[in-house]
């Protein structure tokens, strides 16, 4: 049981030929901006892209997370991804999506399996990083964590 629980709490790769986009919106309250981030990895845990964004105020965490997912959908369309899975640790967001059989697929992710993208999203508000970006590969300040995660899941 412990092993199964431990593995469920770690990031897991998507199926072969697919890209998994972990997403997170860092929402504090309805009066403040929120930070958002996503990171896209393939089935061998290789980071393809990651991005960060600042959004204007959102009424709720659910709205902030849905805005983040819409932003991800625009990004993956622009990048011409055709086989993707979007993973979030926000249960209400996953529950609000009514057609999971339509493209793309959505998946509820454990918070501990979504830590890297959560940290990137938090950096928007914590560090005042309101400049959006999209970059190839993983974030330069997280290579050791990405390596540990990929090695653990191999």
UniProtKB/TrEMBL annotation:
InterPro entries: RNase_H-like_EbsB-rel (IPR052929), RNaseH_domain (IPR002156). It comes from Brassica campestris. It comes from the Eukaryota. GO terms for molecular function: nucleic acid binding; RNA-DNA hybrid ribonuclease activity. This is RNase H type-1 domain-containing protein. Residues 22-107 form the RNase H type-1 domain.
